[in-house]
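Re: beginner question about structure tokens

> Can someone show what the tokenized structure looks like for a real chain? I only ever see the sequence side.

Sure, here's an example I had lying around. Input first:
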Amino acid sequence: MTLRAPRCLGILDLEQKLPPGTRLPEPRTGSLLNPATYDCPVITETAEGAWADLVIRGDPSLKPACIAAAQRLVERGAVAISSNCGFFIRHQAEVAASVNVPVAMSSLLLATTLLRQLAPTAKLAVVTADSRHCGDDLLGVANLTERSRVIIAGIEGGDWFQNVMKHWSRNETNLPPPPIKDTDLETDVAACVARLRAAHPEIAALLLECTGFPVITPSIRRITGLPVYDITSLCRITIESVS
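And the corresponding structure tokens:
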């Protein structure tokens, strides 16, 4: 009897600063990197030079590093590939063309599908880590009528985002990972959604761009009573489609 290797979800990871001897905490419940989120192993490869500030702003020179990291993941046994930043969607086409497994780099790939799930008068809210760099080019929504139904807002002004960027950005000092509080994240995202719903009562679903958001997705569902989708929603669909 031949034993089959387990399915692995491969994740393109960001560059990060870790002082010597520093160990990252175990992935939290519900997070992108927690194997229990998908009931399968998760493996990662860092895309060289992919600091969060560069990925968010959109640095085209990162494409070769993304392709190389994806190919390494496939060599290690990944049967599907995603990434640890929704803004990696800019490299979706090139990475998908470079490997022979399904590639789902960002939850933003769900935008067009979700619009078709909603009533024609309903709106979709996209909540992102940084709305300054989340433009129409990342949504894949070409139809002007559909685009008018998408509302984008971010939490770039909040404490959570500022603390996270101290660890993941290339120009910050070499500090240990800052304490990341789910309560801070929940507060920032919930406040953002509340502002959006006050201005756009037609919002009927939420799409969370940032790969750090899934840990608070259940809370946002409870607070808002709305359907909420994130990168783990897409990863579960993708990993369940392959054997």
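Each token stands for a local structural state, so reading them left to right follows the chain. The chain is about 35% helix and 15% strand.
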